[in-house]
Amino acid sequence: MARRATSGDGGRRPTTIRDVAAHAGVSVATVSRILSGTYPSAPATRGKVMKAVRELDYVANANARGLAGASSRSVAIVVNSVVSPHYAHVAQGVQTQAALEGKLCIVGTTGGDPERELATVQLMRQEHAECVILVGNVVNDDAYRARMADYARALSAAGSQLVLCGRPALGPDVPALVIEYDNIGGAHAVTSHLLSAGHRRILFLGRHDGYTTPEARIAGYRNALSDFGVPHDPALELHGRMERAEGYRMIRGRLADGPPDFSAIFAGNDLLAAGARQALREHGLRIPDDISMVGFDDLPTAADIDLTTVHVPHEELGRTAVRLALRHGQDRSALTEQHVLLGTHIVVRDSVRPIRPH
Amino acid sequence: MARRATSGDGGRRPTTIRDVAAHAGVSVATVSRILSGTYPSAPATRGKVMKAVRELDYVANANARGLAGASSRSVAIVVNSVVSPHYAHVAQGVQTQAALEGKLCIVGTTGGDPERELATVQLMRQEHAECVILVGNVVNDDAYRARMADYARALSAAGSQLVLCGRPALGPDVPALVIEYDNIGGAHAVTSHLLSAGHRRILFLGRHDGYTTPEARIAGYRNALSDFGVPHDPALELHGRMERAEGYRMIRGRLADGPPDFSAIFAGNDLLAAGARQALREHGLRIPDDISMVGFDDLPTAADIDLTTVHVPHEELGRTAVRLALRHGQDRSALTEQHVLLGTHIVVRDSVRPIRPH
C-alpha cells in the first residue's frame, strides 16, 4: 500500500530498522529507543537517526503491519468534535498514554453522525489500530447497541479492541472494554452542596431525555433532592443540549418570563454555566451574590468564571482506556467484557452563597 | 490489508456500492448520497442502507484506495495537542469542510515531538490521506524547513499534499500549500487600541524568541509602539510559553517584585490573559478598573472573562486548508506553491479603560 523508498538493494526489500541503524552508525536498540520516544537520547544521536529515517524513508513496523492481527503502532479515538473541551481532554489522555506506550494516536471526528462514525471505525480497523476508543454521550437505544456490538465484533475479529469511554456497558457477550466515570455520584454530591447551603429552588440546565450523560446527571440531582426531602418540580428542569449557547438561551428565556423563581442553578456542564452566567449578567444578576451556580466537568472555563463544579477525570479516562486496551490485547483469550468506573469529586470555588432555608 | 467480509460470490470480489444498493433495495445514487452525508435522507432509507453496509461489511472506496495515487477518503491534520483550543478550532474547521466534501477527517497528535510528527506524517501518507495539514507555531530553523520540505516531496510523490496552516511559507520549490493569518496586523491593531486609550506602559506576555507565532505578535506590538512614538522598553516583554499557567506565573512574578509599573497588558494569547487575570485578582487588581488587558485568538475563554482580543479565523483556516488542498489535488500539474493570508480583527469587550496620557 505505502510507497516506500528503496534501501539500496534495488527496491526488492523494504527498509528495516537494521538498515536505519547501519546508515546512522548506531545500534538497533538505539534506533528503537529513539523511535519509541519513551527514553531520553542525546540530540546528536537523535539527529543522526532521524536523518537516516528520512533518507531511507523508513516506516517503523511496516513489516509487522502487513501480518493479519500483528501488533500495530497506533491507537485510535473517535469523538463527535475536538472543539468540545470534554472530548479534547479525553483525547489528550489517550495521546499521552499512547506516547508512553510508543504508539501513535489518531483521532477521528464524526460530527455526531452515525454514518461517519461507521466509516471512521472501518478506517481505523483497516489501519490496524490496536484499539478504537469511542467517547461520550449517546442515545442508548437498540440501534446504538446493535451498532456498537457490530463494531466490537468486527474489531475483535481484526485483532483490535473496542473501548467505550464515558458510555454504558453493552452486555457480557460483547467484546468491549468500558471505562465510565461517576456522573450520578458527582451530580448527587454537587446538588447536596447547594442543598446544604440552604437552596431549595435549584434550576437544572440541560435536561436531554434519552441521552446517557444528561440523564445520569439529572438522576443524581433528583436523588439528592429526594434525600433532602425537597419536592421535585419538573418546571425547574430546562431542556437543551450541553453547549454554551444553550445555557445562555435557557436563562434568557427563563428571565424573560419574570424574575427568578430559583436561588441556585445546577448547570449540566461548565459550558452551560458559562452561557447562563452571561445571560444572568445581562439581567444585572451576579454570581454568587444574587444567584448561586454549580457546574459539571471542571474544564478550564470553570476556573475562569470561579465556578464550583464536579471534577471529571477526563485525561485519566483516556489514559486508562489505552492502558487497559493494550494490556487486554496481550491476552487475546480474555475477551470478556471489562468495566471500570472512575470517581468524580467536587471542586469548590466562589459561586455558591448560603441562604436561609425557605 | 483490511479484513472484508464476502458479498456472496465466495469471497473473490470485494463488496461494491452496487451490492449495497441491491441488498438495501435502493439505487446506487441513494447509497452514495447517504454515505457521503452531504444530503438529507429519510430515516427509514438511511436505516436500510446502513444495515446493508453493516451486513456486507462494505468499505466505501475500498477499490479506489488500492490504486496508487487514487483519490482517498480522508484528510489528515497533525497538531501538537487537541487540548489547546487554538488547534481544536482549526481541527474543527478541517472536520467541517471534510464532511462537506464527503471525506473522513483524522487528527494526529505529536506532543510537539518531531519524531512523533515524522511517524504521524508517514502513517497519514501510508493511509493515502488526500492532504496532510500541519498546524501552528514552530521554530522556523533549518532543521524544520528541511523536515517540511521532505514531507512535502514525499506526500506529493504519493499523490497527497502538504498544507501548512498558521506557519510561514517554505519557498517556491517546495510543493506545499500555506494558509496563514495576519498575526502582525492583529497585534498592531490591538496594541494601537491600548495606545489610543492613553496607555504607554504596556506589558507584553509571552515573548518566545525563535517561535513564529509569538515573534509575529511581538513584532506587531513593537511596530505599534513605534508608530505612536512610544519608546520600546525590553523590560516590559515577559518571556514564556503561550499557556494559561505561564500567564499566571509571569504576573505573579512581576507583582512580587513591587507594585505594577504598567497600566495595561497585551497577553500573547487568551490563555495567557486568563492566567494573568487570576494572578491580578489574587493581588486585588481588577480588570479594567486597575489594569487594562487585551489578548489574542478570541477563544471561548475570552468571552468568559470579557476580554478585548484579536479574532483569529481558526475554523476558516481549517476549512480553507481542506478546500484548497482538494481543489489543488484536481490539478496535479499545478504543484507550485500557493499562499493564502487570512485577515484578523479586534473584538471589543470590557477589558480596556482609557487613561490620561502620561
UniProtKB/TrEMBL annotation, chains A, B:
Keywords: DNA-binding, Transcription, Transcription regulation. It holds the Pfam family Peripla_BP_3. GO terms for molecular function: DNA-binding transcription factor activity; transcription cis-regulatory region binding. The keyword Transcription regulation applies. Residues 15-69 form the HTH lacI-type domain. The keyword Cytoplasm does not apply. This is LacI family transcriptional regulator. It comes from Nonomuraea solani.
